[in-house]
Amino acid sequence: MRQENATMTSRTLIAGLFALLALSARAGDFSDDPAARAFIDRMVKVHGLDRTEVTALIDAAQRKDSILSAISRPAEAKPWHEYRPIFVNRARIDGGLAYWDTHEALLDRVAERLQVDPAYIVAIVGVETRYGQHAGRFRVLDALATLAFAYPPRSRFFTGELEQFLLLTGEERVDPREALGSYAGAMGHGQFIPSSYRRYAIDFDGDGRRDLWHSDPDILGSVANYLKVHGWEYGGPVAVRARLEGERPGELLAAGLKPHLPAARLAEWGVIPETPLADDRPVGLIELAGADGPEYWVTCNNFHVVTRYNRSPLYAMAVHQLAQAIAAERANRDTFAE
Question: Is 128 annotated in the active site?
């Protein structure tokens, strides 16, 4: 009898331990968060997902203070003369040359099919992830849940991206607990946020999946498709350095990034492009904080297209200058090789 009681006690303890472990596994950083509960309700009601599965995922998400810290100090807050060296430097140019050489045949196919200049495809991957070497160290689930439920300034946006992420993982057969990305939930070598992944990524290798982590055809094809869909002009100008003759054209600078003025009218504002542009080409003007004072750049449609990838003009200018540097060195190298 004593042995039987001991066995029953042991079983009771073991059962209690398993129950405790199950409870702790369910209790996550957002388990009692009202916004997280409302999110689960929406995923079930609107998209028909299984409540138990969605709840388990949200309960598995971890709040990361490092993510909240990172989003409060983006690189785009730096002045241009500090931002530029991060992305336009010897290592990124050399890396771009090597990356282009490695993927030359693929880039040719992508450029031909989608009509996007390969230098800019390469430069975007270079700026975003140093050619795939730094594609993100945060679990996307943690990043998006942290920003959705613990970052009020952009909670609505990131709640939407978390929704898109869960839908994406089902469509592309991605484990939502394992996918890694940036602190803002951007994924793969081209750093697509979930909504952009679902909308613009393409299956360029034809295997039935859009894999932006491991498939070079899908990665490069998707970056090109993003630019194409937003209106990229193959071989078109991107940005031209300009000088001012007269006072700073504040009204022109305030008009925004989208090209809105025929290039022929720039002279009326005292803006002189260093490289001529067609008189009827729509242009804009931006001012960047250079080390020796303001820099003025006339921007064209393709520059605006790059800002659709990332809305910062500093980002778009870094992509432009890196693309130009890589293309120039590649052309010079090939010329000397002949």
Answer: yes
